[in-house]
């Protein structure tokens, strides 16, 4: 994952409502949820919810699949893991450098 991809992913999570939707999808697991199910759990107006889901999908964090008349939404766990790894990959790296300089 490069800086641009990471910025897009983190930007997609950049509102309380989108974080709430993403959290609900993470809790739902691989089967995902329909738009109606997400709306019931969040209380977000359908048109606003559609906007948030579109934003999350554009950021690569949500996959949408139309089955019949329903659209299923699933968290993209691989992308979420990559984002977590991207931000944590250098955790505490400077502490090692400081310890070496103080030793």
Structural account:
It is a single chain. With 103 residues, this protein is an alpha+beta fold. Helices cover 64% and strands 14% of the residues. Strands 1-3-2 form a three-stranded antiparallel beta sheet. Strand 2 and strand 3 (70-75) form a beta hairpin. The longest helix has 13 residues, at 16-28. It is elongated, with a radius of gyration of 17 Å. The mean pLDDT is 93.
Overall pLDDT: 93
Low-pLDDT runs: none
Biggest β-sheet: strands ordered side by side in the sheet: 1-3-2
H/E topology pattern: HHEHHEEHH
**SS summary, helix count:** 6
> What is the general shape?
elongated
The helix-and-strand class reads: alpha+beta
- Alpha-carbon distance between the two ends: 35 Å
Short synopsis of the structure:
By secondary structure, the chain is an alpha+beta fold.
List descriptors.
103 residues, alpha+beta, 6 helices, elongated
Secondary-structure blueprint:
Layout: H1 3-12, H2 16-28, E1 33-34, H3 35-42, H4 46-58, E2 62-67, E3 70-75, H5 77-88, H6 93-102
Antiparallel strand pairs: 1-3, 2-3
Helix pairs in contact: 2-4
């Amino acid at each position: 994952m490069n800086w641009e991809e990471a910025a897009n992913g983190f930007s997609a999570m950049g509102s309380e409502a989108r974080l709430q939707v993403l959290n609900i999808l993470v809790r739902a697991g691989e089967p995902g949820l329909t738009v109606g199910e997400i709306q019931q759990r969040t209380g977000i107006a359908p048109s606003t919810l559609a906007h948030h889901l579109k934003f999350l999908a554009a950021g690569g964090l949500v996959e949408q699949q139309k089955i019949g008349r329903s659209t299923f939404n699933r968290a993209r766990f691989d992308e979420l893991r990559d984002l977590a790894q991207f931000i944590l990959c250098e955790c505490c790296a400077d502490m090692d450098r400081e310890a070496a300089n103080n030793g």
